[in-house]
């Protein structure tokens, strides 16, 4: 049985084949090792987003048999360059894919009443399976989160359970990561936080959509959200009439 690393959202057919073969999938976009992200610096510039730097960090420490990386419009051009770095670093097969799937899987988690951190965990884990989703009833939204999954999910802690998810994360759950029209969908009736990792190209779309939204804030952070970023989110929620969840610490 192989250990297969994935980056981005590979095509459904590729994931289905890995599932059928019984291989173990490791999501390299998510922190998998307790090591400093600075260890990636000799291989990838610090001005790359924290997600791609995490990919390289994971690849340095995990014993992998091969990597499947989406280098198409559903990920980013930088992922293509990182695939070259990984191939040179590791000497294992690197399968470059371009996910342009259009079959909709639906977005039941994005609209369910579930703690936002749990919601994101389940959405990102869903990439590892080609199985259909269990139906969930949508909730009435009080808040919106548009963007990509943050490297540090603690950014999501202040949001209410009735937060609806938009942006590339919604495309991710739908298994159509290159669907720009779906990525641009927003709800103008609810206050919305627009998020992208620092140095991510999606920050341009986040700022554009936020500028057109009547109740919005655009934020970004690098590796982990600092106190100022958390304060901005909490202040925005409070000004929107939403009581943010507070840490017990």
Any descriptors?
single chain, 249 residues, alpha/beta, Rossmann fold, 2 domains, four-stranded parallel beta sheet, 8 helices, 33% helix, globular
Secondary structure layout plus pairing:
Elements: E1 3-7, H1 12-21, E2 24-27, H2 50-61, E3 66-70, H3 77-90, E4 94-97, H4 116-126, E5 143-147, E6 163-166, H5 168-174, H6 180-183, E7 192-197, H7 202-211, E8 216-221, H8 227-239
Parallel strand pairs: 1-2, 1-3, 3-4, 5-6, 5-7, 7-8
Helix pairs in contact: 2-3
Strand-residue proportion: 15-25%
How are the strands of the largest sheet arranged? 2-1-3-4
Uncertain parts: none
Count of domains: 2
What is the count of β-strands? 8
Shape: globular
Using only C-alpha atoms, the radius of gyration works out to 18 Å
What this model shows, in words?
The protein is of the alpha/beta class and about 250 residues long. The chain folds into two domains: about 5-95, Rossmann fold (3-Layer(aba) Sandwich), CATH 3.40.50.11890; about 110-240, no CATH class. The protein has eight helices and eight strands; from the N terminus they run βαβαβαβαββααβαβα. The strands form two sheets. A four-stranded parallel β-sheet has the order 2-1-3-4, covered by helices on one side. Strand 7, helix 7 and strand 8 (about 215-220) form a beta-alpha-beta unit.
